[in-house]
Amino acid sequence: MDFITTLINGLSIGGIYAMIALGYTMVYGIAKMLNFAHGDIIMVGGYTIYVFLNMTGHPAIAIITAIIFCLILGVTIEKVAYKPLRGASPLAVLITAIGVSYLLQSLAQIIFGSAPKMVTIFNFGTKNIGGLRIQISTIVTLIATIIVMIALSLFVKFTKMGRAMIATSEDKDATQLMGINVNGVITVTFAIGSSLAAIAGLFYLMKSPSLTNTLGSMPGIKAFTAAVIGGIGSIPGAMLGGFLLGIVECISYSIPVIAPYTDAIEFLILIVILLVRPTGILGKKRREKV
Predict the structure, then answer these.
(1) Burial of 83 from C-beta contacts in 10 A (0-12 / 13-18 / 19+)
(2) In this structure, what are the phi and psi dihedrals at residue 279, rounded to the nearest 5 degrees?
């Protein structure tokens, strides 16, 4: 029974990592860049929820506002910081992304201070299901994650913009020659990824209601790890990597002897998988055109 509860909790946490990882993997797959500021969008979404929850007292208004604000922020960051570097070296883009990350963290610390803020969004309580005592928020997170992932997969597969994303990820130059606005596709990708980060921030606060300016740092790193494990650039890979990492994390925390080394175990799994399969579990080798 305890193992089943741990497994469900692991799937729930893994779902949060998967939602964040989708932002990393979509941006990398389409724009071929690693947006290390992505994790801090979670923190911005958390503070937006905190501000509007205190202002209005309505969680729904706070959540919708956070999603919209993070969407606008993600698009703005792409336009201001990344678009001018479209033809620059990967190192220049990487350094810029790290700079944007520290900028967001510093602004949050200046505005809200360094003391943690407690955010109580929903209190669903617990429920006995088949003899298992499970937090309702865990079930809600898991169901919401599955719905988001199915919706995103259908969007990419069946909509015109989704097909444009696939084409751009395969060959950006050829896609441009076909008349597709590649810059517009990249902007939409950032918008979707930032919205998912805001939703992930909501579920993360439901599990751990303490909000600081570094809230998104470790979840962001773990989500990136999940994306690489699953195969960065692959949407199913991001999902698989997120769930795998969440399950490993919860199982490790449930064993007192190895609990202090949980983070090390997760990153060790990343190293082992990359040694065995450098492209990740579901990643594909790409032929470089010359």
Answers:
(1) middle
(2) -85, 0
The pLDDT of residue 68 is: 95
Q: Which residues contact 36 (CB under 8 A, 6 or more apart)?
A: 94, 97, 98, 101, 220, 224
Select from 271, 216, 245, 287 the least CA-distant residue to 23: 216
Q: What pTM was estimated for this model as a whole?
A: 0.88
| Beta carbons within 8 Å of 33's beta carbon, 6+ residues apart | 27, 82, 90, 93, 94, 97
The CA distances from residue 287 to 65, 78, 193, 270, 290, in Å, are 42, 27, 26, 24, 9
Question: pLDDT tens digits for 29-57?
Answer: 888 888 888 989 999 999 999 999 999 88
* Residue whose C-alpha is closest to residue 235's, from 11, 14, 27: 27
Domain ranges of the chain: 16-216
